[in-house]
Structures are given as structure tokens and as C-alpha cells.
Amino acid sequence: MASKMTDRLMALDPPGFKAATQHPWLRLIGQSKLPADAQLQWLQQDRIYALSYVAFIGNLLAKVQLPITTDREQSLEWRISDMLIEALVNIRRELAMFEDILRRHFDWGQNVQEDTVQANTTTRIYQQLFGAATAPNAPLSVGMAALWGTERCYLEAWRFAKQQNATSAGQYASDDVVRQILIPNWTSTEFESFVNDIGNLLNELTERSAATDEEKVRCDEMWRQVLWCEERFWPEVDLVDGA
């Protein structure tokens, strides 16, 4: 029996997955030792990423051919569309979350010109990855692999941060944001269920369509690109106090 696509991808590059999800930035934020400027840098770039994610999901939706049969709600295509619509709802909520944190804790929006941050190199590469994943010649499975890859990495990354035994009283004013908002958002059972749903749909899609070797290789390449981007998306930090 052929292995599931998600199992295939997870087995491709375990060191790359570890590097993408156990970055020093995550260790420090979990230990409440992350300088405020390092958190601000990430928040600004993740907000830009989230805006790009909206177009990415929209382009994925455009690739799904919905059936007109009476049992459409049970069809794979409809279930994929339903999941993608949920992804849009989630990212709208997260955009509001980012902007609320930036306003409350970093005085974001006080000076529009100064607060308009551009995408850095890694964020621009991520935007290009989203474009490649939804290009006209890209199978839906490749875009789904990109989506599952980004969300799977985020789930594991914030689990790692949660495991770092964050202290009850952080050194920085942003500490409560980390423990009360950021970590719970990406380690919740709801988010885990969402990630699993994407993976199950990806597996079903590739199994039903009997993905060709070329299609599998393209999914492999997309996964490796996601791991490369994820590792570099976390800002560089200096480990301190023996962290």
C-alpha cells in the first residue's frame, strides 16, 4: 500500500523540519527571554505574510472545481473548499490579532509612514512560493502540500515554544502576549484539528487522483522549500543566559 503523502513528506527531511520548528527565536520566546525588538520584527513580517496568505488561499479556491451533483457536500472538492474558506476566516482573525497586539504593545499606527514596514527577503521568497504553488500549471495537490506544510510547521514550532517552560513573570512587557495569545493560538486543539484536516484532504486528493511520480516530486520540492522558508522566517537572535 502506498504511503500517505503527509507521511512521505515528513520522512523526506527530518533535520530540516527540526531546524524549521526548533529555532532559537522560538526557544527564547518560550522562555520569556526574547527582546521586544525581535518580537516586533516577527510580528511585522508575519502580518505581511498573512496578507499574502489571503491571496494564496483565494488562488487555491479558484483551482477547485465544485461538483453540481446533489451530494456535493460529501464530495472531496466541496470539503477542500470548505477547509479553504475556514482558512480565510482564520487568517482574517489572525490579522486582527496581529494588529491589535502591535497597537497595544508597540504603538503601531501612530506614525503611518514609520510603521509601514516592507517585506524582508524571506517574506518575499514566501510570497513567491505561494505564487509558484498556485501557478496555472501547478496541480492542486502542490498548493495543498504548501498549505499543509506551512501550517504543520507552525503547529510544531509553537508547541516547541510552549515546552520551553516560560516563566510566570517575563522581563519584557510583551510577555503576556506570548503566554496568553500567541502560544495558545497555535497550540490549541482547534488549530491542531485544522492542520490534520488539511493533511487528510491532501492525502485523499493524492490517493484519489493516483498522483504521478512527477506530481509527487513537485510536492516533495514544495515541502523542502517550505522548510527552507520556515527556518529563515524566524528572526535571528543571540542566545543568552545559557538558553
From TrEMBL:
GO BP terms, alphabetized: thiamine metabolic process
Top-level taxonomy: Eukaryota, Fungi, Dikarya, Ascomycota, Pezizomycotina
Signal peptide: none
PANTHER family hit by this protein: REGULATOR PAB1642, PUTATIVE (AFU_ORTHOLOGUE AFUA_3G11955)-RELATED
Residues in Thiaminase-2/PQQC domain copies: 19-235
Name of the featured protein: Thiaminase-2/PQQC domain-containing protein
